[in-house]
Q: What sequence folds into this?
């Protein structure tokens, strides 16, 4: 395939367009788009619907586990006391339990892409504690915001390749003279039937 527009140019234009998503009153974490965008190319050189589906299935699950950790910590974070060490002990136990559950969830075929869950997991923490989302400091707003932005990444990955308007090339690396994307199919000639063996008198 030969790109009519360099992939670097298309990807950069799309990256610049995210400024119009994040630079609004919604305060969306547009960097989360780049997380799943990069993940698409880590899964393969060519973005595919199958890989996008795997990310769309696992990243929200990871963000959900992170959400649970924050909610539980808000409720029982000081059960051992108000000191930082006591709070760290409680948080450590909560993370241990939730992280174990996340890993076990990866045994389910639909959620087998465990790195995808961890990308969503980390994205939620960065969104919530970074003050991103349409209601900064609200765990649910952070969850919705990061899930939507993570989901957009595979779309950007697909468009970054699709909008290069690549054309097919022949074995010599040159495109067709008419500029079409048609693939030339060479049909093999039917094999000739061998002559029957001579009969003996």
A:
């Amino acid at each position: 395939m030969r790109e009519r527009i360099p992939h670097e140019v298309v990807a950069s234009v799309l990256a610049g367009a995210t400024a119009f998503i994040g630079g609004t009153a919604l305060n969306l974490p547009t960097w989360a788009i780049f997380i799943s965008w990069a993940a698409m190319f880590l899964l393969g050189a060519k973005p595919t619907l199958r890989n996008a589906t795997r990310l769309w299935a696992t990243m929200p699950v990871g963000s959900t586990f992170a959400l649970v950790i924050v909610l539980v910590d808000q409720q029982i974070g000081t059960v051992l006391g108000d000191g930082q060490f006591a709070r760290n002990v409680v948080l450590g136990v909560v993370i241990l339990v939730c992280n174990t559950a996340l890993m076990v969830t990866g045994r389910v075929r639909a959620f087998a892409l465990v790195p995808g869950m961890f990308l969503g997991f980390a994205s939620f923490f960065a969104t919530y504690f970074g003050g991103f989302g349409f209601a900064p400091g609200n765990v649910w707003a952070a969850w919705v915001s990061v899930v939507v932005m993570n989901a957009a990444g595979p779309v950007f990955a697909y468009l970054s390749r699709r909008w290069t308007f690549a054309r097919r090339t022949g074995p010599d690396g040159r495109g067709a003279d008419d500029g079409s994307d048609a693939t030339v199919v060479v049909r093999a000639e039917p094999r000739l039937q061998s002559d029957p063996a001579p009969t003996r008198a």
Summary: The helical segments are 7-17, 19-22, 31-42, 49-76, 84-105, 114-129, 139-162. Confidence is low (pLDDT under 50) at residues 177-189.
